[in-house]
Write a structure and sequence with these properties.
Largest sheet: 2 strands, antiparallel
Strand order of the largest sheet: 1-2
Distance between the termini: 51 Å
Structural class: mainly alpha
Strand content: under 5%
Number of helices: 7
Amino acid sequence: MTAKPDTPFLCWNCHERALGPHFCAACGKVLRPPAESDYFQTFGLPRKLWIEMPQLEQRFLELSWKLHPDNFVNASDAEREISLEQSSELNDAYRVLRDPLARVEYLLELEGERKEGEKKQQAPPELLEEVFQLNESLDELRDAKESGGDLGDLKTKLQSAESGFLERLGEVDAQLESVAREWDGASDANGTGEARKKLMARMNQLLNRRSYIRNLVTNVQKELAAS
């Protein structure tokens, strides 16, 4: 279970309680990244999905400078090792939190609602007919390429399908943003566990749908590029 943002940690050097998670207020030593911390905590943020990007970037630059190993060349071996750990953790946290989709996936992983790397590939029921037609068009295009047939009409059909699926991606992204704002609202209002679980299930469903549609678009683009 991950720690709350205000959970105190013990400093490895003076053993005083430090709210960290970067430097000890008592002795000033750089702190080893707590095993129970998370990327939100790395930046001193609540576990919410709306993040002001300019503030995140500014905080990243500040911490990058403070934690850079070059600042610890005359420090002990332990401090140099810890600065490397902190810098690596900071870079990973920034890479995830600056990406809205990666941020949602990460939050769901923290909450135990999504296994790392999970991307279910079942076709959403409302897309079954479109997926069937797309697969037929892809097969026709491959057959036409092998036989030297005319590809013009088939490519036009696939480009139309690509546009349609890209539009679906935009719809899913808009739905994800809406649910993310609901999540933040529930967090601010200390919403019930049941309400939060329903929101996480919805986000998980949308992420899976997005992954499936994104793969369809990628397949179409590959075939069009090769034809």
